[in-house]
Amino acid sequence: MSWNQDRAKSRIREHLKTVPEVDRRVALDSAVLSKRGLLSRMPLSEAFVVEGAHLYGQLLDFEDLVTEQGQETEAAHRRLLRFLDMHYRVWDSLVDGDDGDRIDYHGARLHAVVASPVGDPAAQIERAVALARKLTEAAQKVGEAHGFPSRIRFGIDHGKCLAMTTGRGAHEKDTLFLGRPANHAAKLVASGAEQGIFLTETAQKRVAAEAIRKHAGGLTLDEAYIATAVRKYAFDSLDRTASAVASDLSAPMFRFERPDLPLSSVKFGELSPANSIRMGMASIFADIDGFTNFVDQSIQGGSEAIREAVKIVHVIREELNSVLKEDFGGKRVRFIGDCIHGCVAEGERADDAAGSVREAALCASAMRSSFDLCLEAVQSDAAIDLAVGIEYGPTPMTRLGHRGDDSVRCAASRATVDAERTQQAIERGGVRLGAVATGIADPTIRKHFSSGRLMSFDSASDLLMTAQAPAVQILRSEPAARSHAASPTPTRG
Amino acid sequence: MSLDALARCCPNWAEFRSIHAREAEIDAVAVRSSKAFTRVFQLRAISIGNEIRVSERLVGSTLPACCPERHINPGGSFCIGLRAGEGITDETAPAWWKKLHAFALWQETAEETGFWPSEAQLSHGEAGEVELAAENAADQLGLRAVYREAVAFDTGFIAAGVGRINAKTGMLRNGRSACICGRTDRGGRTLLRRDCHGNGLGCPIILEHRRRAMVGEYWRGLRGHVTCCGTMHECPLRAIDSKPST
Asked: Which of B9, B13, B34, B67 to mutate to test the interface with A (most CBs of A within 10 A)?
């Protein structure tokens, strides 16, 4: 499989036809909000601006569970998935609430948007704080019962975000929130390893005055404020589910099989704990650098600018997904904000580590070429770029949480964690390989993809001497077609 | 005439227009891996003696006027292959076009990335001949990939072996030890270091050492005569040009 410019252009034309519509009033109507619950069933064809509190939670013990005595064994992955499944069963109880909250999670991270009470930022933050405390207590309860450490760090920001849904099918859909509050809450969580509930500067300004107190030279949430919030917002279903999960000590049996390749043929709808897959894969995190600022400016710019932002992100994300799936046989795990996380794997009978990294590098370059075509197609001068992180390692894929259609797809391993971290270390656009991928990659991949600018597919195809590169085909038929430089005198070449 | 031979087998990615008996114009557009087109290269081919030289019609308009790392000689002529322009006949003209085709494609990659694919080039100047000899010697020993690694990345046991060569004699030190390249005689006994190079195609380690020395000489010969165009990342001229004058 390979990237082709005409095919990409034709796909982009199709993606442009499915751009979600932006309501003329732009902001999600409060009547609609209270009627159907915030975005829990957001239609594919619409995008909204939503104002609310964004709560990010990170399971701090996740990374310690990825390995067992330093090795990513099947047993370690079974334990890791049981750990996530336990938390997802608790978090699932919030998903379909009719209370205006939107909960979403992937890997070790939870993201909730609290948009009620509508139009009252301080109360929205208060409700998010209550939810964070309730989730902390629930995690402790189920963790103690099941024998898992379950510390969570929460970050809260507040503001307007662009919300839209992409993907098709019950197990392939993602609702996304784009803009500063989602981004800043996530960054606040990632910036430390201390358990607790933390507010960004924006959220601190909008929360009730008595909520913040000075402590050890910094600002922290007042315990009395948290206690009042918890009394005010009950989240009964969360308490009930946490008790049920804590008393139900039966854990799903995870059985792994090596999937048939390409990975794109794997359907999350057919996966379950007993029917999970696991093999060595290259994890790819491709992020649109600069998009948060662009979205923020668009939200301030009004409906026309928002429409433009929706169009750009929709077209880019759909096209990056098409490159991953159709051109490189990869499997998208999730869209996360303006980022796509996917995996590619090579090796019919045994894992081909170097081959997987090479395919991931070519895929990243193809994404770069498609990204440029997207910007050309939407005629945008947005200051955005593409940043791609790649890491390799054994990775399980399955579905967790509620049985049936509501279960959550999951790919969790050291490679998925480090691919994202590698991507986040890129300043502006570019490409970077994780430590494992760098170690197993062939020298040409290491030289051109370890860290730096992300080249186009055509150039990558030439430098990596792929079989489909016309110049490589010429070299095969005419081995003397190797450029040279003559001696200063006489001129020969 | 060489130009006539080229005209008779002009491929469909190029247009050949004869200007007079010793000069022709070529417009070339190649198709890259993704089926995207390269830029249009407007070229001039001239016949000098027994040799065809090809360059941009307006030297420096699309490509650098001179860049050894992009295989463009001082004066703007292209080095599309070792002795590629000599004695073109109907038999060799198709190969000349293939070399020009690959050259045009790799120019686009060099333009974007600042790198030329290592497998797709030969060492500059007379070192190119030595590289071919070393490659043949390595090939005979099943060491082609190891040799290419030594040239491209300075890693692997051939590259490590170069470090064990006596700079004065150009031969491996400890001549009575078994040669690092592993060459054996007819009886299957490993040849000694002092005997290996004189046997058959030569020792790839010694040839690689020689190649490196000749490449060094090549760059020293250009010093002060050629200015770096700044488009290639690993060009030795870049380092020379950026050194403060003393």
From this structure: B34
